[in-house]
Design goal:
Layout lengths: L6 H37 L3 H21 L4 H13 L1 H12 L19 H17 L1 H12 L8 E6 L2 H13 L4 E6 L6 H15 L3 E7 L9 H9 L3 E5 L14 E2 L2 E5 L3 E5 L16 E3 L2 E6 L2 H14 L23 E7 L8 H12 L3 E5 L7 H12 L3 E7 L5 H16 L3 E5 L2 E3 L3 E4 L3 E5 L5 H6 E9 L3 H14 L1 E4 L1 H5 L3 H12 L5
Parallel strand pairs: 2-3, 3-4, 5-17, 8-14, 11-12, 12-13
Antiparallel strand pairs: 1-9, 2-6, 6-7, 7-9, 10-17, 11-15, 13-18, 15-16, 16-17
Helix pairs in contact: 1-2, 1-4, 2-3, 2-4, 3-4, 5-6, 6-11, 7-8, 11-12, 13-17
């Protein structure tokens, strides 16, 4: 971001372009209707042949979609749209459906931060130890390590099942920062929480600490004003906005978002989870009942795994750092602890390779006794749906924890369409009755846990930049389990009988919505 921002112009552009992006869907469907009418009126007898040519063109594009690698459901929706509405389908596909859009977000192709040879060797040793103790978890760790995500020891972890406690801890650690503070968040909203954080960031920046922030523009269109951006820059805080919507009015790339939640302090402390920086996450304001979320703090060697991911994103956005990458490594050795941790990230630039979705599938398939999952949204591929059903049929105690008060009603209606099959196979579904469950976590066999920013839906797996951390045989797994037990104690068990009692109107509406689940 540059100083002396044209505040009124910038703010107006951001708001107008957001409305423009959403309106394009409607306009493309209208283009289909207008094209048909024009051809019918002016070409009369030849209109049939002209429209047939458009149908053939749409079929050719649909075949190309079918042949390319990637999500079967994602491809199916595009193929149906291209064949049914060729004009609108081809316009939308050029805007949103190709593989070039994610690579055109002004993101540079930057190689990963080089790892020290000692770090590679340490990760190999850790992997060997984990593999000998638990082959199933070792295979998951090996899969992620092959994609550049190292396995760490000497890392402590603490779980937060409450937003207020998370913010207190984060602010306390930031106030003690000596070298740098990195923040990367989907939402960074003005309010009481931000006032506390900004006060600390401003004080630390004045003391010579490097403070760098990445936030997503679409997630903050009405929640972080340009005046605050200017105050941040005046305080010496470096800010970069991911995928500014006003730059992409004509190209409509707003679907690709930075949904990560990462905080790194001096390379020694790192935080991730579902919690954004906004007042509702601490229940200072009420939105959709009680807002239930989670996060983790990792302390020691594993924090570097998130630091390198922030550095990579910073450079991909065209920014530079005043020091070599090694300068941002931790100054202290990590605590001697049991178990291993593995931070990792994902994004559309990886497609069709998808580490987050594949990790979920491997965790489900490896469960032997119990599998607990929290997610605010649920719209998955048939492969993941089937994996959960197979696990339940095989005797695994599979439990899916979801909100009772959703923030996106259409997405919640779509999620319900999947529940009947899960319930029929013995999956238990708990709805968090006090309000909105926004936590994203997986706990398997009291041995492995995943906490991060990842929802179980198409946006997470196909369109968003996401992050998470896996814990293998660490005490934090029990901390997560305690919170999951507390969530279930406050939840109602949803039954197959309830699902079958849905009205015909709800069933019909949900079935239609599910066709567009990839865009919800």
């Amino acid at each position: 971001m540059h100083k002396n921002l044209p505040q009124s112009t910038e703010r107006t552009e951001r708001r107008i372009s957001a409305a423009t992006s959403i309106s394009m869907c409607v306009l493309t469907v209208l283009a289909q209707i207008v094209t048909t009418l024009v051809l019918t009126h002016f070409l009369r007898e030849k209109a049939y042949f002209m429209y047939a040519a458009l149908e053939i063109a749409g079929a050719i594009v649909a075949i190309r979609v079918y042949l390319r690698p990637g999500s079967p459901s994602y491809k199916l929706v595009w193929m149906c749209l291209l064949l049914a509405l060729p004009v609108a389908g081809m316009i939308l596909f050029c805007l949103w459906g190709g593989t070039h859009q994610a690579k055109s977000l002004s993101l540079r192709k930057i190689p990963p931060t080089p790892a020290r040879e000692s770090q590679k060797m340490a990760s190999d040793v850790n992997l060997s130890r984990l593999m000998s103790r638990s082959p199933a978890w070792g295979r998951i760790a090996a899969y992620l390590q092959k994609r550049g995500f190292f396995l760490y020891r000497n890392t402590d972890a603490h779980y937060f099942g409450d937003g207020a406690a998370f913010f207190d801890d984060l602010i306390m650690r930031m106030s003690q920062a000596e070298v740098y503070i990195f923040l990367e968040y989907y939402i960074l909203a003005e309010g009481k929480v931000w006032d506390r954080i900004f006060s600390v960031l401003r004080e630390r920046a004045a003391a010579g600490v490097e403070v760098r922030i990445i936030f997503d523009d679409f997630g903050n269109l009405t929640r972080l004003h340009v005046e605050m951006l200017q105050q941040m820059q005046n305080a010496g805080i470096e800010v970069e906005v991911f995928n500014p919507v006003h730059r992409y009015v004509n190209r409509i790339y707003f679907n690709y978002r930075d949904h990560r939640k990462i905080a790194v302090i001096d390379g020694y402390y790192a935080y991730t989870g579902g919690i954004n920086i906004a007042d509702e996450y601490a229940n200072l304001i009420v939105r959709f009942g009680h807002w239930k979320d989670s996060a983790v703090r990792i302390e020691g060697e594993g924090a570097w795994g998130f630091a390198v991911q922030f550095i990579q994103m910073w450079k991909m956005m065209g920014r530079t750092l005043p020091n070599e990458d090694d300068y941002y490594r931790p100054r202290h050795d990590g605590p001697a602890t049991q178990g291993f941790c593995q931070p990792f990230t994902d994004g559309p630039l990886n497609n069709p390779d998808n580490p987050i979705e594949e990790t979920y599938l491997q965790l489900i398939a490896s469960a032997k006794r119990m599998l607990y999952i929290t997610t605010p949204y649920y719209a998955v591929e048939e492969s993941m749906q089937k994996s959960l059903c197979i696990a339940a049929d095989a005797g695994v105690d599979v439990r899916l924890l979801v909100p009772a008060i959703p923030d996106k009603k259409f997405a919640y209606v779509v999620a319900k369409t999947y529940w009947g099959e899960l319930l029929a196979h013995g999956v238990k579904i708990y709805r968090y009755t006090p309000g909105f469950l926004h936590a994203k976590s997986v706990m398997v066999d009291r041995e492995v846990a995943l906490v991060g920013s990842t929802n179980m839906d198409y946006r997470t797996f196909q369109l968003h930049y996401e992050c998470g951390v896996l814990f293998y045989h660490m005490p934090v797994v029990e901390e997560l389990l305690e919170d999951l037990d507390d969530i279930m104690a406050q939840s109602s068990l949803y039954t197959l009988e309830e699902w079958n009692r849905r009205s015909w109107l709800e069933r019909t509406f949900a079935s239609v919505l599910r066709l567009g689940a990839i865009w919800l």
